[in-house]
Each structure stands twice: as structure tokens, then as C-alpha cells.
Amino acid sequence: MDMPHLFGFVGALTVGLILGLIGGGGSILTVPVLVYLLGYNPVLATAYSLFVVGITSMVGTYQKHRKGLVDFKTGLAFSFPSFLAVYLSRRYVVPNIPETIATFGNYELTKEMSIMLFFAIIMFLAAISMIKNKKKDALCPTKQHYSKTFVQGLFIGTITGIIGAGGGFLYIPALVLWAHLPMKKAVGTSLVIITINSLIGFIGDVQTLKIEWQFLLVFTSMAIGGIVIGVFLSKFISGKKLKKSFGFFTIIMAIYIIYKEIN
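== Probable membrane transporter protein ==
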């Protein structure tokens, strides 16, 4: 095994470890690992990320369900508009983004660069949500109409489909504010949505991309191993402090991505 692949699989283990420790956020490392360590183009990297995130979230769903922290009815109801948007964005939007988005003099904004820059912006938003203290689970007295939830699900699904990440930092607040779930149950329920969205989005990619299944399955296995270790270690480590630390690390990663893409 060459050095880049060795670092890549260590990165996969780290992704799973973070997911197991803090219940989310680790998936946003998958694309940078695949692009900058292993040299995959961003379109293929976001496709692989959807598979890794989907499978690892499935494992996480099972673990949360054993603790009674998953509301399957709410998760399945919310996932319907989301997975439609994820599938359509992966099947039709991403493949049809022009190779050159814009030209500014001698500077060319390419499709791959645009995906990574958009990914960096989403990473910033994810980092802010992890750093901020959520001190209360105050819930609205009445639920909003499902038509609004449907539109919001389409919006979130489109974003997560384009960047190839799980989108837990978007789904968790949505479940708290719109479905009125307590924070811990919202985290567990978000994994149901992430699992469905990611795997259905990946199905859209299978129809347009050539998948290296052997590599992808090994990479995913390493991430699953990381989740198992992370869940065990989470009993001894403060998740709140770890989430903040990872938030700051995510900001650094986002800045690095922007630097790499514009230079």
C-alpha cells in the first residue's frame, strides 16, 4: 500500500472516530481526504462520501436506536422531500454543471473548484453550529404545516446532495425547530434521514460514474471501525468540549480548502 492510500485509510478511521465521539461532523472530512490525500476529483469524491456517510450513519442509527434516541416516524416523514432532492441533484444537477462556471480575465472558475469552494462554505456553517452553545431545547407550541417542511427538506437535500456530506448540522436544528424533538433524539433521528438521503443520492451517482468498489468498501470499513471505537471512547470524553474543538478544526480545514482552490 502506497503512502497516500495509507493516510487515506487513516483519514477514514478518523472520520468514523469523530462520528462515534460526537454523533456528527466527521463526514465533512471525507471529501477533503479523498480529494487532497488520495487525488480524486471532487465529483467522484462527493459520490464516495455519500456512500461512506450513508453506511456509517446506518451503523450510528442502530446504536442510537438501542438507546431509544430515534424517532423513525418523524425521520421517515422528513426524509421524503430530502431524498428526492438528493437523488435529483446527484443524478441530474451535478453531472450537468458546466466544466467552466465563469471566467475573470485569465482566471477560470471551474466546476471542480466551485464544488470545493461551496463545500468550504458549508464547512464554515457546520463549524459555527458545533462551536455555538445550544443551551436550551425550547420548542414551538405548534408544528408548522408539512408543505413548509417539504420545501425546507428539498432545500436541505439539494445542498447535501451537491456537497456529498451528511448534513446533520442542518437536519438536527430542523428536527428541533420543526418536528419539536429534544436535542438528543434529534441527533439520533437525523441519522435516519442522513442514511436514506446519502444512499439514495449515491444510487444517482452509480448511474453516471465509474465506482471503484474495492477501494470504497475498504475505506468504508475503516470508517465503521472508527465509529465503533468512537462510541466506546465517548463514555470517557466530554462530547461538548470535543465538538467545539472539532468545530475550530473544521474552520481551519475550510480555510485550507479555499487556499488550495484559489491558488
